[in-house]
Design a protein that fits this description.
By secondary structure, the chain is α+β, with helices and mostly antiparallel strands. The chain is 32% helix and 31% strand.
Length: 723
């Protein structure tokens, strides 16, 4: 037996469930496996997770003792909500004094809309706790709610975030009676009784289904001899232990798309760009800026809940999306895929299998329109093959990479038949198909550029990063239409499974703070650190990003860390300074030849260039100073359109930072804004841009510099903030 340390990641997709094994020390891909996603199995998608894991272990000859972590994404929580496969929730609302009246209204949720024709049913009882929690009253209330149909329970109290003891005590009584229960303060500690109760009710409603799934998956893993921690992907891109998932299954909503973003950050090493993950059925699109993905408040059935997820936009188009024709023209591509229609891809079939192709229009599912195009053959009159986006890309020869590359002789025969049927040149038909397919992706990309105010002048420097089995089909075509650069991630077909394997333990702590002080910020930061340490993160690996939201009047700290000290050896040879300069310039909007090295640490190199801009026929001009930070192997870690760079050492870093803040503040009617600041120390880029005043920035920076050696180089990259 070898002495390998192996991480296993399993990603549940709409079409396939992929699994990978990663060498934890070298980072190399050891093996990969794939099975069809088990949507219709009694065990749900969990069955595919187990099947994929077992197949991987056999193919890659992995010994159970070698596995140090196994993690999987899941669509079970999302599917439960979309399909209405949830338990009826009994809500126990509690209050005292004047809050009693508001609680009776705000905690009574009634029937909650989840999806068309799908609802979450709740029943409600109120308890006056002016005289404290009464054990017998709680029990009697639970019995009444159970008689009314409640299967699981929520305990919620007005201002329960200030003192969680009543919610927790009531929840313990419910659990002692043999029922599953969520205390509202367990899922959120933000003010807002209705939203907090709604979040808790959705969490509780999923408990029976998710616990059954967790138990089955864990048993199968343990039966295989693996004793390593079993982790589950979260919707914010982190991972958590299966025991935590049993308590807060709501955190796994949309964990599938989150896995791809994690891979983009940790495997493809994307610091700036738009990540486009193309599967067989759908495409997930997200934005990464300064090495961080954007997050947003989650919604269920149009109701905002207290859960933050990665902002991943999903489009019903993938490599296997079928083509629809109306009046002899390409009407649409998708959303139905060949896999769902139980039809084969033309691209991956031999010419002999397509003898005498005959066009047939089909309804893949009962509710679908009947204009989806398929093919039968002279030997079999039944529809057997679907015409997909992958077929069009293969016919035009615009496929990138080998994974989706198909048989051109088969496609030539098929497109000749299409040309006869629709009286349009075959290459034009194929282009029509790809245009229709990529229109949907481009629409979302343009919207993201607008929403996140990605500078239009930087369009030429914008990078599209493709992942997923269909990346080579659609991403190059999208990039060409938009006039941007693109990169297809290595091992793109299993990139989400790799993201699951490389996922970090993560926790987001958010607290209300109308006027946040330095101490408030540091307290929330430490709470996030303590949380990931309790969940199993190694202290040496923990990093924290803190944001102060002046609109929501809250502090948010996102802490992440690995289950073991990361000792990954970079297999790539370090580049020379000249090679690094050329790499930085290729990712910058600066004028050619202006990029130069302006700062460095032992691991990172900071380059700055010049960009001359002219307006109104050259009457006016301005100069910006693009900054690019790269590591020793040329991976871009930070890329900003214009900024200043100053170097010092850790002994003088705080006083240096204080001077930068004083000299670079923006003043206006709304007050004073400090600059956006990044502190670069060793291999770390400390993002201080989420903080909104001098004391907060100096407080967090001081905490970050605490364990840094006095003579360690520190480089600040900063730029003024605008009102």
């Amino acid at each position: 037996m070898s002495g390998r340390k192996v991480k296993i990641g399993i990603d549940v997709g709409g079409t396939f469930t992929h699994s990978v094994a990663i060498d934890a020390e070298g980072g190399e891909l050891i093996g990969k496996a794939m099975v069809s996603t088990t949507h219709t199995a009694r065990e749900g998608v969990a069955l595919g997770v187990v099947q994929s894991m077992q197949k991987l272990i056999d193919l890659a000859h992995i010994y159970p003792q070698e596995v140090i972590l196994i993690a999987h994404s899941t669509t079970q929580a999302t599917n439960a909500l979309l399909e209405g496969d949830v338990a009826t929730v009994g809500i126990i609302g509690m209050a005292k004094g004047i809050e009693r009246f508001a609680t009776k209204v705000q905690a009574r949720l009634g029937k909650i809309f989840l999806a068309p024709h799908k609802f979450l049913n709740t029943v409600f009882q109120f308890i006056d706790i002016t005289n404290g929690i009464d054990y017998q009253i709680i029990r009697e209330t639970v019995q009444r709610l159970h008689m009314a149909g409640a299967q699981v329970f929520v305990t919620t109290e007005a201002f329960g975030v200030d003192d969680q003891s009543n919610e927790q005590r009531a929840a313990e009584i419910v659990r002692d009676m043999g029922f599953q229960c969520t205390a509202a303060s367990e899922v959120s500690q933000l003010y807002g009784l209705r939203a907090r109760t709604l979040t808790a009710a959705i969490n509780a409603s999923m408990l029976p289904k998710m616990l059954e799934t967790a138990d089955m998956t864990e048993k199968s893993v343990r039966d295989s001899g693996i004793r390593a921690p079993l982790m589950v992907m979260r919707s914010d891109g982190g991972i958590m232990g299966v025991s935590e998932m049993r308590r807060r299954p709501i955190l796994t909503i949309l964990s599938g798309p989150a896995a791809g973003v994690t891979a983009a950050l940790m495997y493809a090493r994307v610091s700036e760009g738009i990540f486009i993950e193309v599967g067989g059925t759908s495409t997930d699109i997200s934005v990464i800026v300064h090495g961080k993905p954007f997050r947003k408040a989650a919604e269920v059935g149009g109701n905002k809940i207290y859960l933050r997820t990665l902002d991943v936009r999903t489009v019903g188009i993938g490599g296997g999306s079928m083509v629809r024709f109306t009046d002899g023209k390409v009407a649409d591509v998708g959303p139905r895929s060949a896999h769902i229609a139980n039809l084969r891809y033309l691209s991956f079939s031999d010419p002999e299998e397509i003898r005498g192709p005959v066009v047939k229009f089909v309804k893949p599912l009962g509710s679908d329109p009947s204009d989806y195009l398929s093919f039968s053959t002279q030997d079999n009159p039944d529809p057997q093959f679907a015409l997909t986006a992958t077929d069009a890309a293969n016919f035009l020869g615009v496929i990138e990479g080998s994974y989706a590359r198909g048989n051109v002789y088969t496609l030539k025969r098929v497109f000749e038949e299409l040309e006869k049927n629709f009286k349009r040149e075959a290459s034009h038909l194929a282009k029509d198909i790809l245009d229709k397919a990529t229109d949907k992706i481009i629409s979302v990309v343009e919207r993201l550029i607008d929403e996140y105010k990605l500078d239009e002048s930087a369009r030429g420097g914008l990078v599209m990063v493709g992942g997923g089995g269909g990346a080579g089909v659609l991403v190059p075509y999208v990039a060409r239409r938009l006039g941007t650069k693109y990169v297809i991630a290595e091992n793109s077909e299993v990139v989400s499974a790799i993201g699951v394997a490389l996922g970090l333990i993560q926790e987001t702590v958010e607290r209300n703070a109308p006027h946040p002080t330095r101490d408030d910020v540091l307290r929330v930061r430490q709470e996030a650190i303590d949380s990931v340490l309790r969940m199993g993160a190694a202290a040496e690996t923990v990093e924290v990003h803190v944001e102060v939201d002046s609109h929501a009047k809250s502090i948010r700290a996102i802490a992440s860390g690995s289950t073991e000290m990361r000792t990954r050896n970079v297999p790539l040879k370090p580049l020379t300074v000249q090679e690094l300069r050329e790499k930085a310039e290729s990712f910058s909007i600066c004028d050619k030849g202006t990029m130069s090295l302006v700062g460095k640490t032992n691991f990172l190199y900071i380059f700055q260039g010049l960009k001359r801009n002219s307006y109104l026929l050259g009457l006016f001009s301005s100069v910006s100073k693009p900054v690019v930070v790269v590591d020793q192997t040329g991976v871009v870690r930070l890329n900003i359109l214009s900024g200043e760079v100053r170097s010092t050492d850790s002994q003088h870093a705080l006083s240096f930072l204080e001077k930068i803040i004083e000299d670079s503040c923006t003043y206006g009617d709304a007050g004073v804004l400090p600059p956006n600041v990044f502190a670069i120390v060793a291999a770390r880029i400390i993002d201080l841009t989420g903080l909104i005043n001098r004391d907060q920035i100096l407080g967090v920076a001081g905490a970050e510099f605490q364990n840094v050696a006095n003579d360690e180089p520190v480089v600040f990259v900063y730029c003024p903030r605008r009102f």
